[in-house]
Design a protein that fits this description.
With about 180 residues, this protein is an alpha/beta fold. The chain has helices at about 1-35, 75, 110-120; strands at about 40-45, 55-60, 60-70, 90-95, 120-125, 135-140, 155-160. The radius of gyration is 23 Å and the shape is elongated.
Length: about 180
């Protein structure tokens, strides 16, 4: 009888331990599923080599979000266009922290429109020599850095991306 009780106690211990481990992982990991996020999208007409889902999004060096998804605009917005008419853009969906635009006055849409007019742009930036990249947001000269031409209405709020130029550092605005 004592052998049977020991197997029962051991089995009960393993089951309770497994339930506690799974419960702890769920409690610690589920918090990110329910946190509020603001989704934005941008498009680039260049390679996004090194940028991955989960990569940081920074504004002047401060992390303000993460890359949520990377895909092609032709698969989402230009599905029924002629192949020669499709743009070769990569779509990057970004999840920004909800308090990023709270310090500015007005609604998020009004604030974003005003800041984009002032020159707010997204651009790819490399992390040292590792080959990985992140998305950086900063103010650039809006006259020399116009938004890409898009013929559709974005599903999320839109932040233009910097067109690829070799002298982009000269266009930084100190605002």
């Amino acid at each position: 009888m004592s052998d049977r009780a020991n197997y029962f106690a051991l089995g009960l211990f393993v089951i309770i331990g497994s339930v506690l481990i799974v419960g702890t992982v769920l409690v610690l990991g589920v918090g990110t599923l329910f946190e509020e996020r603001d989704l934005f999208e941008t498009y680039v007409d260049q390679s996004v080599q090194g940028l991955e889902e989960g990569s940081a999004v920074k504004f002047r060096g401060v992390k303000i979000g993460a890359v949520e998804r990377i895909d092609f605009t032709r698969a989402i917005y230009e599905r029924y266009e002629e192949p020669s008419e499709k743009k070769p853009y990569v779509r990057i969906i970004v999840a920004l922290m909800p308090d990023v635009f709270e310090s500015w006055s007005g609604s998020i849409d009004e604030t974003l429109e005003k800041e984009v007019t002032r020159g707010l742009r997204a651009r790819l930036a490399n992390v040292g020599l590792t080959g990985s990249a992140y998305l950086e947001m900063d103010y650039l000269n809006p006259e020399t850095n116009p938004p890409l031409e898009i013929l559709w209405t974005p599903k999320h709020r839109y932040i233009p991306c910097l067109l690829y130029t070799s002298d982009a550092a000269d266009d930084l605005l100190c605002v």
